Amino acid sequence: MPTVEDCEVAQTCWFTCRAEVLGGQSWTDGPLTWVREGDEQSLMFPQRLPADAVLRGVERARDTGVRIIGAWLGAEVDASALAAAGFERGWEPWWMTAAVADVGAADDPRIELQQDTLDYTGEYADYRKTLLMTRVRPQHTWYAAAYNHPSGRFAGRAWSHLGGGAQGGAAGGTAGETAGVFDMEVWPAFQRRGLGSGLLRAVVAAAADAGARHAVLNATPQGKLLYESCGFRQIGAGITWWLHLAPRG
Questions:
Q1: Are residues 130 and 10 located together in one domain of the fold?
Q2: Residues near 243 by Cβ (< 8 Å), separated by ≥ 6?
Q3: Is 209 inside a domain boundary?
Q4: Domain of residue 197, CATH code
Q5: pLDDT of residue 249
Q6: What HEC string does 100-143 produce?
Q7: Tell me, what's the pLDDT at 248?
Q8: Alpha helices by DSSP H, the chain
Q9: Angle at 155 between CA 99 and CA 222, to 5 degrees
């Protein structure tokens, strides 16, 4: 079964692939791996945090108009350099994993796998661009949408991403057979109707068809019970740190 390290690899692969496909950037500075997409910058699971390298990353963010920096860490990593740079401790990712065979069948007619959509309009219109991931990497990335019946209203979404391939692949471990589940959400008005489990099963099944044997995700307390009902179990926890940057005047 996957380890916490495998969960971290899956998360890093997802962030890096999104940046490559959607016009962002990724780079390394000593032991630090940074990813930028839009006005957000992320620091991905360093084992150590040299203060000078952290400050260089913050300065690069300021110079390029980044609004928020998020740092993803293992719980055992010394985060004093982040605190000194002004970061504040955030929420804990609860790492969970399941064998894809234990998640359940993708048989909910309210869920659709899609490669494009007209569901995002107005202030959310830019989100449609992220579905380019499913067209550039059709054997590695899947998007599912949920629709409430009988109204047919758009009710939620989820993604899965399988490591490996030409872009953003991670070597070693179980990367080539472990799919990450990301950005899963059911809008509040449609919760407690089984749509969450339907979305989860749909994106995990799509990854399983492409060769995934295991699925991993990070959960919040609100979502943990849902994931447990679909065969996931918690194997560890991490921590996030956040820095909000004011625009330079």
A1: no
A2: 58, 68, 69, 71, 82, 85, 86, 87, 88
A3: yes
A4: 3.40.630.30
A5: 61
A6: HHHHCCCCCCCEEEECCCCCCCHHHHHHHHHHHHHHHCCCCEEE
A7: 67
A8: 4-22, 51-63, 80-84, 100-103, 132-136, 195-209, 221-229
A9: 55
Strand partners, 89: 241
Could you tell me the residue range of the domain that residue 78 belongs to?
Answer: 4-95+239-244
Place of tokens 């490559």: 20
pLDDT at residue 163 in the model: 85
pTM for the whole thing? 0.93
Low-confidence ranges of the chain (pLDDT < 50): 165-173
φ, ψ dihedrals at 147, nearest 5°: -130, 130
- Position 222 scores a pLDDT of 84
Distance CA 200, CA 190 (A): 15
